Amino acid sequence: MTPQQLAALAQALENVQKTCNVQERLTVDPVGVVRRYDHPEACELVGLLAASLAFGNVKALRAAIEQVLERLGPELPGVLEDRAATLRRLGGFKYRMVHGRDIGRLLVGARRVQILHGSLGGAFAEDLSDHGSLRPALVAWTGRVRQHAGFGGRSDVGRRGPQHVMSDPSGASGCKRLMLYLRWMVRPDDGVDLGLWKRVPPAVLLMPVDTHVHRIARNLGLTSRRGPSWLASEEITAILRQIDPADPVRFDFALCHLG
């Protein structure tokens, strides 16, 4: 991309961001649910829930998130310290291939990581410091959560839910929902993202890329990849990083609500 093309792209992205009706879009975006909570521990857990279910029809996924939160009740995060009670409350829940026992174990595992490391962000910051870059840090961090969740047992054989609810960042997938979660937690509080993980710099983030964002990115010349993938996210972010090295994913919210 030439300097002139990059300048034109930057101006176009700034215009998209300026014209995005944030308050209106928050009523349908899953991060709007997360922003209802004040306590950082609750925000981390509700954010993980919301990001994990952020696939499919927007109204349906918002309804699924709300249903889980209603079942868990106001005792969040304390209820997640009781595995049996959590799974009992989420019994019968299903959203697409994800069952109550999948999302329940994920949240129980995440709560355990919070207790052991002070916060989910603290655990991720440790992994980022140990591994030096985003992908291996994310592999380590998701491994922690999955281990404490108890995923991978005999009862999970042949089921998609446990794998789908938390993607594997060591594969080819762009892990859109994990990238979305990181964006919410890491980027500064701008009325959309929450800025809770202050030990993690926004510069390390990758764009969350689904089919909609990928199509826009292809049209803008940000990637040559034919579909969403980790490599596509890296290509897109590499160009956005030329526009804003410190905060390359700041246009994501506006772009994903474009069109």
Give structural notes:
The chain is mainly α and 259 residues long. It has one domain. It is 59% helix and 2% strand. Strands 1-2 form a two-stranded antiparallel ribbon. Strand 1 (94-95) and strand 2 form a beta hairpin. The model has no long low-confidence stretch (mean pLDDT 95).
Name the strands of the widest sheet in spatial order. Answer: 1-2
Shape summary = globular
Q: What percentage of the residues does DSSP assign to strands (E)?
A: under 5%
- CA-atom Rg in angstroms: 18 Å
Helix- and strand-based class?
A: mainly alpha
Mean pLDDT equals: 95
**How many β-strand stretches?**
2
Domain count: 1
How far apart are the termini?
Answer: 24 Å
Count of separate DSSP helical elements? 14
Can you summarize the main beta sheet? 2 strands, antiparallel
Bin the helical content.
55-70%
SSE topology:
Elements: H1 3-19, H2 22-26, H3 31-34, H4 40-52, H5 58-72, H6 83-89, E1 94-95, E2 98-99, H7 100-117, H8 120-131, H9 134-149, H10 161-165, H11 176-186, H12 211-220, H13 230-243, H14 252-256
Antiparallel strand pairs: 1-2
Helix pairs in contact: 4-7, 4-11, 6-7, 7-8, 7-9, 8-9
